[in-house]
Every structure is written in C-alpha cells, then in structure tokens.
Design a protein that fits this description.
The chain is α+β, with helices and mostly antiparallel strands. It contains 3 helices and 11 strands.
Length: 213
C-alpha cells in the first residue's frame, strides 16, 4: 500500500522579492473649498465664488492638469450637552491638481489657499513609469528566486528540474512563517523614506521539481 507521503512529488519552493526605486515625476494635490451658511443658496454661492478664484489661479499658472468634483451639500451640526444643534448647510467643492513640475508644489498650495481653499486633503507623489517599473521588479523577483533555488539545491546535493508552479505574492503584505511585513498602500507601490522617491516591489513563489540527487 502506497503511503500519502510517497504520492507527493519531491520539489523545492522558493520565495523571491525585489524592490526598484525611481524618482517621482508627478505630484497630485487634493484640496477643497467649503462654506457653511444658514441656507443652501448662500452656501452654494460662497463656494462657487471661492471656486471661481481657485480655477482662475490654476488656469493662469499653467500648472498642468486639474479638475473639480461636483458640488455637494450637507447639514452641519454641533453637539452641546449630548444634543445636536443645527449650525447651517455646508457646500463643498474638491479640486485635484496633477503637477509635473514638483518644484512648484509649494506655489500651488499657497496659491489655492490664498484663492479660497480651506482644506488641504493630501499631497502625494507618483511616477508615470509605474507599469514599466512593476514589470522590471517582477523580472528581478523571479531572478532572485531562481538564484536562491540554485544555492539551496547545490548545498542540499540535488539538482533542479523544471518549474512546476509560479505564485504571485503581494509584496506589501508578505507572510513568512509567523511574521507579517506591511510596507505599503495596496497597488504594488511601497513606502519610501523620501516622499518623492517611488519604491515599486514584486514578490513570487517558484516551485521546482528535484531532478536528482
């Protein structure tokens, strides 16, 4: 009778990872203008007035691509002694600026605030070469796994056969044993110490047959 372990093909599974760093070539700035008034009409009017100034500033400055959201309206309340008190209606417009010249980031932020924006939601840095960098990182991850497999097989006195399994692994949440390393935000882009330096990672598991030894 054949045991369960005898039916398992001998093999070696290796983990490979790689990180490539590249300078950012685009800043994404998200700001908003909001106004609270007693009536929706007054709130809309205040936001549109400030919004027109922001659009004028961005258009004149020729900073690059920018866009705006649709205007929204919500009730504004404040709590006093565990009871809500109606304050007014808040109208809000959000703006996104994609800036190619990173040196003008400060100029854009100062200008939109002076024009009427009262919320700075975020300033992030991106690269237009993301797909190219991710492909290169994946190639390097496969190469790293292959190199490790060759070292392990040599020291174990066996020879590698063909690859029988390839498993992609999110480099931002890699579990090795009982340790979990969280390094990023969800799209293959890892956190870097320099905010204008983009780190792109890739990870892979390769399983090789053992040809002999």
């Amino acid at each position: 009778m054949r045991s369960d372990t005898a039916s398992i093909s001998p093999g070696v599974t290796i983990f490979g990872t790689a990180i490539i760093e590249a300078p950012a070539d685009r800043a994404v700035i998200k700001v908003a203008v909001s106004r609270v008034e007693k009536t929706p009409q007054d709130a809309f009017a205040g936001v549109r007035k400030a919004g027109a100034s922001i659009v004028e500033f961005l258009a004149k400055g020729q900073f690059g691509e920018f866009g705006t959201s649709r205007i929204t309206l919500s009730e504004e309340k404040e709590w006093t002694q565990s009871k809500p008190r109606f304050v007014g209606y808040q109208a809000r417009l959000a703006y996104t600026v994609k800036l190619a010249d990173l040196d003008r980031t400060e100029e854009v932020l100062s200008g939109v605030v002076a024009a009427g924006a009262n919320e700075v939601s975020s300033v992030t840095f991106e690269t237009s070469r993301m797909e190219e960098l991710r492909a290169e990182a994946r190639k390097k991850a496969v190469g790293a796994a292959r190199m490790k497999a060759e070292v392990f097989s040599k020291e174990a006195g066996v020879s590698l056969g063909r690859v029988i399994a390839v498993q992609d692994k999110n480099p931002e949440s890699t579990v090795l044993g009982e340790r979990e390393f969280l390094t990023g935000g969800g799209t293959g882009q890892l956190k870097a110490i320099d905010p204008t330096l983009i780190s792109v990672g890739a990870s892979v598991f390769l399983t090789y047959e053992i040809a002999g030894g």
